Each structure stands twice: as C-alpha cells, then as structure tokens.
Amino acid sequence: MAEELILSYLQDFIPDTISQKSKILAVRFLKLVFGVWNDTCKLLQDIDGKEFKVDRWIRAEGGGGITSCLYEGNKFLNATVDVTVVRGHMPSQAADQLREAGRMSTAWKNDSPEFLAISMNTIIHTRNPHVPSYSYTLRLLVIKLINGSEEGWFGGNVDLTPAYLVKEDVMNFHKILKAACDEHDLSYYPRFKKRCDEYFFIRHRGEARGVGGIFFDNLDFRAEKHFDFVQSCARVFLPAYQPIVKAHLDEPHSEQEDTWQLLRFGRYVEFNLIYNNGIKFGLFMPGIRIDTLFASLPITAK
C-alpha cells in the first residue's frame, strides 16, 4: 500500500498542460522507473541490513520527488536511489545547455519553454574497495514547443567505476549490456558504449573515470521501439551489478587498498563537479533539492 501511495504522490506532479498522449507516455515511463527504484532499494537494503531513509520533497516552482538514502551502512558507504519529477518553464541557462548539446528542434524558439522531466538515478559506493562504484540513470524530457506541439526524449546511462580492475567482471558486465542492446538494434551497443567512454572521461586528468557502460540520449519518446529498449535497460541494470557485489563484498582489504579507494573517489568527485551534465542542468533549476542533486558524491574522498 505504501508503494501505491508513493507512486500516486509522484504521478500528481505530471501536469495536465501537456497533451493527453504525452501524459499517458509520461505516466507509463514513471511507473517503469518507479519499479526500478523499488527493486533497487529492496535489494540494497537486503544486502546491507540497514534501512534506507526515504524523503519525499516538493519543488515550489513545480514538481518534486522521492529520495532514498543509505549512509554509512554495514556494506555500503553511501547509496542513493531517487525519482524526480520536475515541471514548469525551463530557465534560459538550462535551455542553452540543451541547445549546446544539439537537442533543439527548429520549431523550438521559446527561450523558456514549458517542460516536464522525469528521472530515476541510482548511485552506489561500497565500503569494500574491491567492489566498484556503480551508477545508472533513466530519464524522460518532454518540451512544449511554441507552436503547441511537443517533443520528448528518452535517455539513460550506466557505468561501472572500480578501484581495482577485475577483467572477468568488466567483460561480463559489458556482455549483459550488449545483449540488452542487441535485442533491439545491433548498432546500439557500439554507439552507446563509445558515447559512454567519451562522456565519462576526466579531460583535465587525461583518464577515464571507470570502465564505461552505455550512454544513450535523444530517443524519441513517441516511438514504441524506444520505450521497449528503455525497458530492456531497466531489466538488466541491477543483474549486471549483482554478481560483482556477491563475488567481492566480503573480500578482505588492507589500509593501503582503502587509501587507494579514497583517491579513486576523489576522481569521481572531480568528474561530477566539473563535467556531469545532469548536475549542471539541475543547478539551473530554481528550487531543486540540492542534497538529491549531489547524492552521487561519495561521502569520503581524498
């Protein structure tokens, strides 16, 4: 019953000002990511033995969300799983960021268009340096054009960030992602893997943040094939990580290995504060929940 109430709470943030067709698609996507949120929280809580703190919040300018946090757990240093529904008129700085990324229709002339953004984000950092940090995101952006029509995109990404590299883990991780992509289009995996490698690169260091994954964006939300692909991603993001956690979570580790993990966490912080587009976009949104926006940062770093 509690889960139904939370889903209803989130659905109430979807505005009636978008078209009925877009609203149906938005509700459908929200139900999908809410299911991922629920499954992820249950799994991580079962592994750690400590309960998530669940926080519902409202953005005065439109929208809100639910953020589940597990800080200083038995197994996890910090883990955050959130679903955010933001609506209203997009600030000009946020619109400029989308234009720079090439996500602007020729019909989009309004500097402050009405929009709806739905996202589900998971970030996991463990105490054991032999277990990689993990993050995945699914998102939908709908924009109302000045002529009254609407455009929308699905996007998402998943990436693995180990402090210590285990070749077999990385190969199996990518094998699962490739199978999910190949089910829909054989060009997806090489395209989306390349995009992920390019995105999660710390340019000022000249090094990758981790071992990649997939990164996709600009998939027309009106195309059923794109929703099917997003569903496939939602099904595999947890199974791609579970075997790695199970294999290494209880491995012994030394003080030297712990120190190395802190240095890798430091690189994670550098990337997110300088290059992370989601954080940049969120900072342009008045009233956004800052604790949720920066939940991806490890609570210790060096």
From TrEMBL:
Transmembrane regions listed in the UniProt entry: none
> According to its record, what are the GO cellular component terms?
cytoplasm
Q: In which pathway does it act?
A: Porphyrin-containing compound metabolism; protoporphyrin-IX biosynthesis; protoporphyrinogen-IX from coproporphyrinogen-III (O2 route): step 1/1
Q: Cite the InterPro entries for this sequence.
A: Coprogen_oxidase_aer (IPR001260), Coprogen_oxidase_aer_sf (IPR036406)
Which EC number(s) does UniProt give?
1.3.3.3
Q: Which domain of life, per UniProt? A: Eukaryota
In alphabetical order, the GO MF annotations are: coproporphyrinogen oxidase activity
- Which biological processes are named by the entry's GO terms? protoporphyrinogen IX biosynthetic process
Q: Which UniProt keywords apply?
A: Oxidoreductase, Porphyrin biosynthesis
Entry's family note: Belongs to the aerobic coproporphyrinogen-III oxidase family.
Whom does it interact with, and what assembly results? Homodimer.
PANTHER family linked to this entry: COPROPORPHYRINOGEN III OXIDASE, MITOCHONDRIAL, OXYGEN-DEPENDENT COPROPORPHYRINOGEN-III OXIDASE, MITOCHONDRIAL
**What's this protein's name?**
coproporphyrinogen oxidase
